[in-house]
Amino acid sequence: MKPTAHERLVCAILAEQVAGLRSRMDLMPAFDLLWRTTALLAWLSGLLAELTPPPAASPALERERSEAIAEIARLRQGLDELAFAQAQRHDFARQIADCVITSLTRLAGDARFSSGDLAALYVSDEQRQLHDNVIRRLSEEAEAAE
């Protein structure tokens, strides 16, 4: 059976979404590394804070220890923020993947599935923007072909 124009459009949009997912999924190993590094920094900061300088310790050594603790806190905060952003990207990628899977399941059934049906599954403006861009691009290509 030959696919309808609606099905071809839905497939083109889904292909663009899957291509966008590829770049998001490549970041997953970095995401794990961020969390592990943050935990290590917390541990090191705690160890440094517990080390009390002996009475004969120099003020310069105490200043370096305090600066190290402060720098670890800054690094940890930055990594926590980055890890949070990565978690949001991961969740967004999962939502797109769910949308693609749901769409393919519906396409495989007997029911008609249009680009409007696909748009109803979106959870973000980024997905809607991609959808509109694909429709616009395909329309321009069709006009150029005529």
Features:
146 residues, 5 helices, mainly alpha
Write up what this structure looks like.
With 146 residues, the protein is mostly helical. The protein has one domain (5-52, 63-145). 82% of the residues lie in helices and 0% in strands. α1 (5-25) packs across α5 (125-145) and α2 (28-50) packs antiparallel against α3 (59-108). The longest helix has 50 residues, at 59-108. The mean pLDDT is 78.
Query: Given the structure, what is the number of helices?
Result: 5
- Percent of residues in β-strands: under 5%
Q: Rg to the nearest angstrom?
A: 25 Å
Helix-strand string: HHHHH
Helix content: over 70%
The count of domains is 1
For the terminal residues, how far apart are their CA atoms?
Answer: 25 Å
Number of strands: 0
List low-confidence stretches.
none
Structural shape:
rod-shaped
Whole-number mean pLDDT: 78
Biggest beta sheet summary: none
Q: Class by helix and strand content? A: mainly alpha
